[in-house]
Amino acid sequence: MLEITNLTKSFRRAGAKAAETPLNGAEMRIERAEIVALTGKSGEGKSTIARLLCGTLRADAGRVTLNGEFLLDGKRYNRDIGRVIGLVPQQPYAALDPRQRLGDAVAEPLLARRLVSSRTEAKTRAAQLFAEVSLGAELLDRLPSQVSGGQAQRAAIARVLGTEPKLLIADEATSMLDPAAQAVIINVLKSLVLTRGISVLLISHDPELVDNTADRVYALSGGKINIE
Description:
35% of the residues lie in helices and 28% in strands. It is built from eight helices and eleven strands.
């Protein structure tokens, strides 16, 4: 489904004598309907890969294909292909508008992309998406501050699901949650793999979580990705 080949990214920070190269010929693949984990120490470049795949950062070199079509080719990024990639944030409260009710937050991208024909249909679809991530419809009218961190994260996932992604990137998506809430999020992701055929890139520094969740595990170190 997704294949990364020779992906390279360097940064030159102000005042630094030499560039940092967190990715130097990195390679990885993700098949359809599987959970692939990417681990590594803080600062190794795990989130850099997420940003490159989402198009918020430009690569120096390399190629990424998604379902046989180019997503990233050197510094070029194909935003039409990138629309099927969804990012599950590390901090859901920061990703959600604190003044916007959760139901409206989920409905917003549906209306923006014209995936529904009316606000009534958007509201109905938002309730369906809430059910898909094990949230009750009574939470649709809540503000982010009125729900728990785990519930906010599931609302963020529902918001992403509305755009029909083929790949979800969960970048430390459970690191801010307690163990019970983490388990719920992982169960939601596993369910989506089974019911929707979605693929998941799970970026985490938690070895126990990775071992219990992923079909395959890659480790990023020294700019290279190695399978564990």
